[in-house]
Amino acid sequence: MSEPWSNQTRLLLIIFGLVLISGFIYFIRPLIGPIVISALLAFLLQPIVGAMHTRLKMKNKLSAGLVFLVFLLVLLAVPAGFTPFVIRQTTLFNRELRILQASLEQSLAQVQIGDFSFPADSLSLDFQTIFTELLHPEQLIEYVTFATENVIIVFMILVTAYYLLVDWRRLFKWAFNAVPEPLRPDVWRLYERIKVVWQIYLRGQLLLMTILGVVSGIAALAIGLPGPLIVGILAAILALIPSFGTSTTAVIVGVVGLLVGSTYLSMSNIWFGILVLILFFGIHFLETYWLRPLIMGQSLQLHPALVIISVIGALSLGGVLAVLIIVPLLSTADILGTYFYRRILGRDPWTKPVQVEEEERVSGAH
């Protein structure tokens, strides 16, 4: 039997392993975002696969394939439903832009300051030149490259999510068995608590998407914005991205209002566009600073101010992906931090402090 390694050797190997892991993570950092999205997608669909596997006695691979196929059909149906709307709005935009150009040229041509007048020819917008520059070969290569990269990323996310969904049970069993046996009860309880946090977050997210979709659709209908149903669906989908989603919705519907006007309000398109922007940025303000902190804060037991600060900070520092997961990550970090803190102090990590239990008892009595 070979001699056991010394503590110094073990320490050196641990440090070497951590350096290798850190270098590997740094090398694949562009893939971390898509992998996280794939894992979240698989986590979201896995309860459905599990229910079909348990109740309908279907094989795990078959149930995962059916669930993922339905998900793909829904994913394809959404842009397919928006395509006619986008085409119509693009046509209207082109027509309104030409009308605006003609009106601007006519108005400025009538302006005269002393002996100076605006020459109409110099104000004419050469659309052919603009489109030629946009379709320049170098620009086309950039468009194709950008589109190709995004298609590859989306394809990678879908493929990874499918295989995670198929092998979810086996991966979980492998990861759990890799934990030293004395730690398994604690790891299991931590997993159950963290799983509840993410489930609560997803339910809260769906509730927010529903509320914002209904409110936006009703608001669009009330002021005569064309396509209120489409506006509601768009607002619900974009509400998946905290803060950024509702502001994007406001910009999109503001442009639509500016171009097509109201179906029954007697006001110019400019003023109607301003009205739409004010209304939907008001919805954005309520979602960011009241509704989301209220729902997520109460559901995950986080202070509303902490939710607001974390969302704004994640958007500025980490982008859209960080915003998507920052709130449940904070709650997860709270669970893990509390566990390690109480373990380090030699306390039972599963019992709550006396003052917390007392506060919960009093609040429950009320």
- State the secondary-structure class: mainly alpha
Which blocks of ≥5 consecutive residues have pLDDT under 50?
Answer: 354-366
Give the N-terminus to C-terminus distance in angstroms.
Answer: 67 Å
Largest sheet: 2 strands, antiparallel
Global morphology: elongated
* Helicity level: over 70%
Q: Which strand order do you get reading across the main beta sheet?
A: 1-2
Using DSSP, what is the number of strands? 2
Strand content: under 5%
The number of helical elements comes to 14
Round the mean pLDDT to the nearest integer and report it: 76
> Which radius of gyration do the C-alpha atoms yield?
28 Å
Structure, described:
The chain has 366 residues and is mostly helical. It has a domain at 32-98 and 125-178. 83% of the residues lie in helices and 1% in strands. Helix 2 crosses helix 6 (137-166), helix 9 (228-238) packs antiparallel against helix 10 and helix 11 packs across helix 12 (304-317).
Compact overview of the structure:
The protein has 366 residues and is an all-alpha fold. The protein has 14 helices and 2 strands.
